[in-house]
Amino acid sequence: MISFETIQQAHDRIRPYIHRTPVLTNQTIDELAGAKLFFKCENFQKIGAFKARGGLNAVLQVAANKEGKAITTHSSGNHAQAVAFAARQVGLPAYIVMPRTAPHVKKAAVLGYGAEVIECEPTLEAREQGVRDVIERTGAVLVHPFDDDRVIAGQATATKELIEDAGMEKYGTEPERRTRPFDSILAPVGGGGLLSGTALTTHYLSPATRVVAGEPEGAADAILSFHSGRIEKAPYINTIADGLMTTLSERTLAIIREHVADILTVSDAEIIAAMRLVWERMKIIIEPSCAVPLAVVLKHKDQFAGQKIGLILTGGNVDLGKLPF
Q1: For residue 172, what pLDDT band results from cuts at 50, 70 and 90?
Q2: E strand intervals along 36-140
Q3: What InterPro entries does UniProt report for this protein, alphabetically (predicted)?
Q4: Which fold has domain 4-50+155-322?
Q5: For residue 273, how far is the Cα from the chain centroid?
Q6: To the nearest whole number, what is the mean pLDDT of the chain?
Q7: Segment (H or E) for 38
Q8: For the chain, domain boundaries
């Protein structure tokens, strides 16, 4: 189990390299949701996504421990950028395996950080084989997108900041007094690295807060795994949320089943509507995967009515030439 001390150490380690992103609110969206929403804006993070946190925490330790002379990973985009960015900070070459269908803007960013991009077919098997080939050729150290305690601990720091910056509020009767900054905290789920980190931080800092995940209907594997207790594959893959197409790992599933209250799904139409709402009302750029938690709140208003809710806005790396609206 990743301890709170591990998360604190991760935060101390990456703090010089990251932004402490703002927490924003919007009255119009609150009225639509029937709740008070606090958005942790990781779309303003280095590389445009929360993934910078986990990538840095892992790569900084690889470099400090002299575990290898190069870094590799596989990713559809944001983790790829995070590892490339982190590797540049420590002066190590990075070899990033990316599906040929990954957004051009994300491939260009990886190249811009000085990493080598190796394209593969858009399947998990092809991505993993690509990484094995890189390791055999270069001896690089794998920094997995989510099946890695160091990555999870880094991602956990986003919720730590959210809870710290939202203000710790006392409530309840004297014998039951506790700290609960939020009634619920929501994050999207793909491979489960962010959700695992979010759930662990919340468990340590605010155990009375309910953690809920959002998942696209077109990549609904996590909800099946959550209920069955074993790794499941989605019945079909067809979603605009390209960052959430990966299945969970045994590591992330175990954390999620212990500390997450529920996983709720939303359609692509609902994701796009939530994404457009943020663009129009908050005047900030978010990518489709980022809009999933808000889509969940808007779809399931009865579950969140009147609550104080924290949402992780995961990233803003969207191809401006292919907007869905």
Answers
A1: very low
A2: 36-41, 71-74, 94-99, 116-120
A3: TrpB-like_PALP (IPR001926), TrpB-like_PALP_sf (IPR036052)
A4: Rossmann fold (3.40.50)
A5: 20
A6: 94
A7: strand 36-41
A8: 4-50+155-322, 51-142
